[in-house]
Design brief:
Elements (H helix, E strand, L loop, with lengths): L3 E6 L3 H12 L7 E7 L3 E3 L4 H5 L9 E3 H4 L4 E4 L1 E6 L4 E6 L4 E6 L2 E4 L3 E3 L5 H6 L1 E2 L3 H19 L4 H4 L4 E5 L3 H17 L12 E5 L11 H13 L2 E4 L4 E4 L3 E4 L4 E3 L3 E3 L3 E3 L10 E2 L2 E4 L11 E3 L4 E3 L12 H19 L13 E7 L2 E6 L2 E5 H14 L3 H14 L22
Parallel strand pairs: 1-2, 1-9, 2-5, 9-22, 11-18, 12-13, 12-18, 13-14, 21-23
Antiparallel strand pairs: 3-4, 6-7, 7-8, 10-19, 15-16, 16-17, 20-21, 24-25, 25-26
Amino acid sequence: MNKTKILILGGGFGGLYTSLNLEKGLAKDADIEVTLVNRENFFLFTPMLHEVAASDLDITHIVSPVRKLLRRVRIFHGDVENIDLEKRIVHVSHGKEHHHHELEFDHLVLGLGSITNFYGNKGLEENALTMKTLGDAIFLRNHMISNLEEADFECCPNVREPLINFVVAGGGFAGVETIAGINDFLREALRFYPNLNEDMIRVVLVHAGETLLPELNEKLGKYSEEKLRSRGVEIYLSTKVDKVNGTEVRLSNGERIITNTLIWTAGTAPNPMLDDLPCEKDRGRLCADEFMQIKGYSGVWALGDCASIVDPKSGKTYPPTAQHALRQGKVLAHNIRASIRSGRMKPFAFETIGQLAALGRRTGVAQIFGFNFSGFVAWWLWRTIYLMKLPRFEKKLRVALDWTLDLIFTKDPVQFLTLRAPTISESE
C-alpha cells in the first residue's frame, strides 16, 4: 500500500503536540505513516529547566521518553542534514558514524525551534554558558558546585574571586528564573562550605531593558527587581554585556566583574537549518498563513519558534511561547487530517492566557487573564499550572514528590558527572 507520509521535524512543544494529536487520530489509519525526527529521544519540559540547575528537581523528572508518549508514530533519533522542498525529501543521519537516510514526505511539519544567539560576540560564544537544554542545566549545576569546592580551600582572594562571582545576562523569563534559582542554591549550599560566607558570594543580573520581565507589566517587573535585590542579587538595568573572557565580564557602563561564570539568556534565533529554504521569511522565521501552511508549498507546514504566524486581531505575529506552540500542534494535526481527508481546515487563533515567573523562595509573579499576582500566590499558580501541563502522570507524581521533599530537606550540592571509573591493566 502506498502510504501518505507525514514527516515532523523537531520534538519540542510544537512537534510533540502535533505528533500526539496525530497519534490519537490519523496515525491509526493503515494508509498513513507518521514519523517524528528529533536529535533527543525525549521531550524536555523547558519551563522547569532552571529547577534542575538549582537542584530543586531530579534531572530525569522533567523529561519524557517519546517512545512512551508515542506508540503509533515512528521515531527517528538523529539529525536533520538537509531539507529539499522541491524533491520532497529530508536528508537525515543517525548513530556515531552518522549513517545517512533519505525520508520522503507528502506532508512536512517544520518545528525545529530556535537556538541561542550570541549576536556575533566571539567572547560570548567562547565563554558563556547557556540554558536551552537539559545538558546546559546539568553543566551549569556541575560548574557551580565545582567552583564552590575549589573556592572553599582557595586561600588566595584573587584566585577565589572569579570562582564565587556569577553573572546572568538577560532579564526575561529565562534569565530571571535562572538567577533566582541559582542564587537560592548557592546561598543555601554555603552551610556545607565552612570557609565561604554570603558576603563573599556575588550574583549579578544584567538586563538591556529598563524593567525586568518586559513580557509582563512594569509593576510586576519592579516587584521582581525588589525581591531579587533583597536576596542579595545585584541588578544592572539598561546595561549590556560588552566583552567577555575566561575571567572577566565587562559591561557597557564600564563595570568590570571578575568571574568565570556568565550565563547567557539574552537572545535566540530561529534554527539556521531554515536559512537555505526558498521560503518567505520574517527575521529568519518561516512565514506561514493562518492554517500554518508555508506559502507556495503544498503540504509544508510550520509552527512554534521557527514560524511567523500573524494574529488577525493584533496584526502582530504570535509570540514564540510554549502555550502557543502546543495549541498550534493541536490545530495543525486537525488541518493535516483535513488536507488528506478533504475536510475543512481551522485557522489558528489564540490569545495568551497568562504568563508566570518563579522568583525562588516560594515567591513569583504572574499575569493571568489580565490580572496581576505576586508573592506566594503567584508561586503557587506557577507550580500548579506547570505541573498540570507536564506530560504523563508518572512525571507529575515524581515532580510533586520532589517539591514536597524540598520543603523538608536541603538541596544536595552533588555533581552529575559522566566520567568513567579509573582502570588499570597489569600483566599477571
